[in-house]
Amino acid sequence: MSDAPAEGMLGPVDMVIIGWPADAPKTGEALPIFVDLVDRGIISVLDVRGVRRNDDGTFDAFDVSEADGIAGLAVFEGAQTGLIADEDVRTAVEAMDPGTAAIMIVFENTWAAPFVTAVHRNGGRLVAYERIGAQDLLDALDALDALSN
Description:
It is built from four helices and four strands; from the N terminus they run E-H-E-E-H-E-H-H. It is an alpha+beta fold. Strands 1-4-2-3 form a four-stranded antiparallel sheet, with helices on one face. The longest helix has 15 residues, at 134-148. The protein is globular, with a radius of gyration of 18 Å. The model is unreliable at 1-6 (pLDDT under 50).
């Protein structure tokens, strides 16, 4: 992002990679929750790409409309801005076990755009950004709970 304040700025953009083994049930249970975030304007999906790591270590990228057994994923068909680069796919595949698949999703946190715009309009700048993992948060809460008992 530019240092110049601008109306209509974007919110922070994140990439999430969700993987599953070949024998996972793939019920699609989480998908309506994710779609609800889009429908309510909390996030905007910018790019979606599927990748499968084969048993021999090779990989295949696939369009979300071809996602085997994941009901409803085709709702993101056409969400391809080019933000997921080939290097991103290679990095994801290297982290995957053979015989697994993953969906890579790039999304804008649209809820934050008005805040980002106001911060920039008032001379503020992002100094640092770090995501705290869910397990780290749970561990910290457990430690806090242990201190209070």
